[in-house]
Amino acid sequence: MNAVDRLPAGGTGRRPRADARRNVERLVTAAHAAVAEVGVDVTAHEIARRAGVGIGTFYRRLPSREALLEAVLAELLDEMASVARRAMDDPDPWRGFTDFATAYVQLRAASCGVNDALGGECGLALDPQLARMREYVRLLVAHAHGAGVLRPDVPWEDVAFVLASVTTSTRTVGLRAGADQWWRNLRIVLDGLHAAPGR
């Protein structure tokens, strides 16, 4: 379900007019970009500014800033759960695991808000999505362990933390990270997780 459809209907319960729906769609699009760049602390004023609407329109069309952020982040986390489901179906367990890990880390690298949400302390109602992500990580690790392609001494909880650590700050010891730093970090981490390193 997309973020627009996740938002509660207006107080009348009637189908919104076309222009009202367009405003909601613009607000959702702006919220996606703002959440990625700023994180969950982005203000309603900033989202409205990016959408090209007034703050009054924001609050006429949406129940709250939190409801909008929850809808946007739930959509992103549900998309990630879909990637995990496809990874479970891959006949090659290592390829499925690495495809999921790549998509997961790439999303974390691209969105400050997703990092906030996955940390679980952003104050938004995302518990069902976070529980689903935990379960998929657990299942993917169990699948890779069962196939003998993931180091048996690494529990699924460690995998969750290791994947979260791949996205780093933009600077360290006077160096600036390139746009693909997350990908280079991930390749090193995956090599360390593989039961046969250097594959």
UniProtKB/TrEMBL annotation:
<dbReference type="Pfam" id="PF21597">
    <property type="entry name" value="TetR_C_43"/>
</dbReference>
<feature type="DNA-binding region" description="H-T-H motif">
    <location>
        <begin position="43"/>
        <end position="62"/>
    </location>
</feature>
<dbReference type="InterPro" id="IPR050109">
    <property type="entry name" value="HTH-type_TetR-like_transc_reg"/>
</dbReference>
<keyword id="KW-0805">Transcription regulation</keyword>
<dbReference type="Pfam" id="PF00440">
    <property type="entry name" value="TetR_N"/>
</dbReference>
<keyword id="KW-0804">Transcription</keyword>
<feature type="region of interest" description="Disordered">
    <location>
        <begin position="1"/>
        <end position="21"/>
    </location>
</feature>
<dbReference type="InterPro" id="IPR001647">
    <property type="entry name" value="HTH_TetR"/>
</dbReference>
<dbReference type="InterPro" id="IPR049445">
    <property type="entry name" value="TetR_SbtR-like_C"/>
</dbReference>
<keyword id="KW-0238">DNA-binding</keyword>
<dbReference type="InterPro" id="IPR036271">
    <property type="entry name" value="Tet_transcr_reg_TetR-rel_C_sf"/>
</dbReference>
<protein>
    <submittedName>
        <fullName>TetR/AcrR family transcriptional regulator</fullName>
    </submittedName>
</protein>
<dbReference type="InterPro" id="IPR009057">
    <property type="entry name" value="Homeodomain-like_sf"/>
</dbReference>
<feature type="domain" description="HTH tetR-type">
    <location>
        <begin position="21"/>
        <end position="80"/>
    </location>
</feature>
